Fold:
Amino acid sequence: MGRKGLLVVISAPSGGGKTTVIRRVLASGNDNFTYSISATTRRLRAGEVDGQDYHFLSLEEFNHKKEKGEFVEWAEVHGNYYATPRTPIQKWLNEGRTVLLDLDVNGGLEVKKDFKDSALLIFIKPPSVESLVHRLKGRKTETQAEIDKRLTRVPEEMSKSHQYQYRILNEDLDITTTEVLKVIKNHNHRD
Ligand code: ADP
Ligand code: 5GP
Structure:
């Protein structure tokens, strides 16, 4: 009997640690894990690689793909567009893979609605708003104006996080990564 695939959605307010935690989970050595690379219209950040961190698209390219039904879900976040490509998701689920997705809360809830038991929603909680600001500044990839824009979404992300199946505090990165791995493992062995 084939093993069922799982979509693991990781959400958090900007600077909450999604990217870092996902990288650590992927590096944990489980080769059944794979990462869903989103499409986006935002500019490439220093250190990011096209086709690895995101598929960076023009607004025209993004809209064309959206109209052709190539996305599982899409959202506007902080003035940019983001979306999950459909073809790889379908393939990985059929192969029984555990797919990690870095999505905003609306995208996560959309995926849950569509994929039901095949989706697991995990929210990474920052210890405080102060720690978020500190981490975002420390990342040095956004201007102050961009940071301010990101912070305006914190209340929406936090309030919708109550609809997530798990909420994990990201204080210590090692502990957070272990917790996420444990939740995925328990979920995969539930039936
Ligand atoms: P997101 O992808 O949610 O926007 P990142 O993973 O880019 O967030 O994390 C934002 C910044 O905070 C990065 O510089 C990262 O190294 C740092 N960071 C993440 N988690 C922790 C933590 N538990 N303790 C200290 N710094 C952290
Ligand atoms: P960033 O620009 O910091 O990489 O991401 C900004 C926000 O967009 C984050 O909340 C991230 O989770 C979200 N995001 C990234 N890719 C997608 C996607 O494909 N769909 C949705 N809905 N949100 C995404």
Observations:
- Residues 6-188 form a domain with the Rossmann fold fold (CATH 3.40.50.300).
- The mean pLDDT is 94.
- The helical segments are 18-26, 59-67, 86-94, 105-115, 129-139, 144-151, 154-160, 173-188.
- The longest strand covers residues 71-77.
